[in-house]
Design goal:
This protein is of the alpha+beta class. The chain has 6 helices and 8 strands; from the N terminus they run H-H-E-E-E-H-H-E-E-H-H-E-E-E. It has one domain.
């Protein structure tokens, strides 16, 4: 599972009713810009307890590791710069379009299903110990809505409202991200305390996750 610029360009084309026509170069580049922009994101589960799981036998693997409520950070200027380069001009509409996409994606939350957060529990029967090698794979971005993005985009582009075509385009973008984006935490970026004797981990957090 990963975002694919070629697939996104095709999905946008089909959504706005241009499927019989070849995908334009600008649409392909715009889709590539969006995907590459999201790859610059930083994801964090910074609230202690947002990463959960169960420590079993001392020295054993974390069980049922999961994470909820992860936050996505992006820099709007990055996508603005990409769009300006693609379209060859800087206009309020292009800036508004880019800003809306970045802003809306940052309202999404990152969730890791049970079993996708892993690591080794180093507690003993008498003493707590840290989670070692904590990592995560297959995290998903949730909470994005095409209609919400379209309304925001229309506002930032100084349009009176979101047209049907704009809403279809935004829905295609959001659906691709929601269905294909994968969040990863590399080994050591997920931390927690495994309690003495085992049981639910404490103060679980994760930092500097990436999107692909």
């Amino acid at each position: 599972m990963a975002m694919d610029a070629t697939a996104l360009a095709e999905e946008i084309k089909e959504a706005i009713g241009q499927s019989p026509e070849p995908t334009s170069k600008k649409n392909k580049e715009m889709a590539k810009d969006i995907v590459n922009h999201l790859k610059t994101a930083i994801v964090n589960h910074a609230i202690p307890g947002s990463v959960t799981g169960t420590a079993g036998a001392p020295g054993g693997p974390l069980a049922n590791g999961a994470a909820t409520g992860g936050v996505i950070t992006l820099v709007p200027a990055d996508l603005i710069g990409r769009f300006v380069a693609t379209f060859g001009i800087s206009t309020p509409e292009i800036i508004g379009m880019a800003t809306a996409i970045t802003t809306h994606v940052m309202t999404g939350l990152v969730e890791f299903a049970s079993g996708t957060i892993t690591g080794t529990c180093t507690h003993t029967p008498l003493n707590p110990g840290p989670l070692v090698g904590g990592a995560g794979s297959g995290g998903e971005i949730t909470g994005l809505e095409g209609s919400t993005l379209a309304t925001l985009m229309a506002s930032l582009m100084a349009k009176p409202g979101a047209s049907e075509e704009l809403e279809k385009m935004c829905t295609a973008i959001v659906d691709h991200i929601s269905s294909n984006a994968e969040v990863t935490y590399t080994s050591g970026t997920v931390t927690a305390t495994c309690p003495a004797g085992g049981g639910p981990i404490a103060a679980g957090i994760a930092a500097v996750g990436t999107i692909s």
